[in-house]
Amino acid sequence: MLLERKSVHVLVDGQRMEASSGQFLFNFDQQEISRLLSFPAHKQQEQEQARERKKIEEAAKWFQRALELEQSGVAMGEATAAYEKAIELDPRCIGALVNLGTIHFHERQWKRAESYYKRALEIQPDYALGHFNLANLYDERGDLSNSYLHYTAALRIVPNYADAHYNLALLCQRTGQVMKAVRHWRAYLKLDGSGSWADVARRELEKLRDVTVVKGDSGAGREHSPRVVS
Questions:
Q1: Cα 103 to Cα 27, 79, 134, 142, 154, distances in angstroms
Q2: Domain boundaries in the chain?
Q3: Helix 196-207 and helix 178-191: axis angle, to 10°?
Q4: What is the pLDDT of residues 55-107, one digit of tens each?
Q5: Pairing outcome for strands 2-4 and 15-18
Q6: Sequential DSSP letters for the chain
Q7: Fold topology of 138-230
Q8: Helices 144-157 and 162-174: angle between axes, nearest 10 degrees
Q9: How sure is the predictor about 46, in pLDDT bands with cuts at 50, 70 and 90?
Q10: Nearest-CA neighbor of 138 among 152, 124, 125?
Q11: What integer pLDDT is reported at residue 225 of this predicted model?
Q12: Do domains 54-125 and 138-230 have the same CATH topology?
């Protein structure tokens, strides 16, 4: 039996009842009060999460639309706008960031392309395609040290990345790193031994049989362009 504010309360099977009226009372202990107070916050959090999920789903639709526009061969402006909308809805949409970077790469807008590739890598540092595309960009700009850095990063993440081996072989050959070039040409041919790119790789390996000839030709400029993923 409990006495609270001149009212007599009794416990019946663990639940409080007012003795005079026989009515059961809510047991608002501190734990229950805390739970009720936190309920609106939990509800708000659930609503915010639902809104975020909806935005991400909408971003995925815009990304898919951008892919279709790009593949259809229409003006790139429409595909660009669709990728930008996907990023607006979901700033962590890595696919949209990289693809938009590649559009700017082909337009030779280096700064914009670099910005989108870097944003993708900030979100996912182990994204091999992001490193590969950034390496291609630096190669085009003549920044060979950063190009080498990102090609090797791509290969650390995906050791069987054939295109990265190909481009790194070219880069090593141009910078006089003969043995590294040989290793990457051979790695490429193991992964992709047929087609015109493989023919180029075999021809370059033939050149590297004579180190002196390679050194003599190293200043003659690039004979073959690196592979670019569109």
A1: 64, 9, 13, 20, 20
A2: 54-125, 138-230
A3: 150
A4: 899 999 999 999 999 888 877 889 999 999 999 999 999 999 999 999 999 99
A5: unpaired
A6: -EEETTEEEEEETTEEEETTT--B-----HHHHHHHHHHHHHHHHHHHHHHHHHHHHHHHHHHHHHHHHHHHT--HHHHHHHHHHHHHH-TT-HHHHHHHHHHHHHTT-HHHHHHHHHHHHHH-TT-HHHHHHHHHHHHHTT-HHHHHHHHHHHHHH-TT-HHHHHHHHHHHHHTT-HHHHHHHHHHHHHH--SSHHHHHHHHHHHHTTSHHHHHHHGGG--SSPPP---
A7: 1.25.40
A8: 150
A9: confident
A10: 152
A11: 58
A12: yes
- What tokens does 22 get? 């026989």
State which amino acid sits at residue 95. G
- Measure the CA–CA gap between 17 and 54, rounded to whole angstroms: 47
For the structural domain made of 54-125, what CATH number should be given?
1.25.40.10
What six digits make up the tokens of 135?
């390496």
Type of residue at 117: Y
Q: What is the pTM of this model?
A: 0.73
User: 225: which 2 tokens?
Assistant: 């362009």
Six token digits for residue 210? 């004579």
